[in-house]
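Mods, move this if it's the wrong board.
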Amino acid sequence: MFTGIVEELGEVTAVETLDDACRFRLRGPVVTEGAKHGDSIAVNGVCLTVVDFAGDEFTADVMAETLNRSSLANLAVGSRVNLERPMALGARLGGHIVQGHVDGTGEVIERKPSENWEIVKISLPADLTRYVVEKGSITVDGISLTVVDAGPDYFTVSLIPTTLGLTTLGHKQPGDPVNLEVDVIAKYVERLMGSREVTP
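Not the wrong board. Structure tokens:
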């Protein structure tokens, strides 16, 4: 489980394309500190398993399902990525409950800079719109954000200078893909309400 509070902006240092998967090597001095084989690290919001590590780099395998459902297939050597280690039991939940299970991808539509923040508009797949509400939580490339406006096929978020400077959203341009994970609580509520029997 993650919180959506990015710990560092890492970098892809190698990409190995396999028959039905991909192997990434990523640099992240903060997240590799104390890392062990089998640990989880969120990469742009996708929970990946540490296969190997050396120094400040770690290796992770990504299967075809993840490549098809997320934007990780677009990564190349030199790509910057948001990195976060799992939340420690008993630690503060600074963002919201994030599983690292991407629900789909959107695209940056436009950016509107202001003096102290920036509004970013992102497209929203039709099957996810029912989970996104104004002032609700959403994860974009692994970043826990508050929805400012929820439209029929888009949503907007307001980014403070810290988010712009320390995450990939400071560099994303219109047309760039982003990973989206909606609030898991909304999905559980929907499932529970749908399973209730209606009695006369």
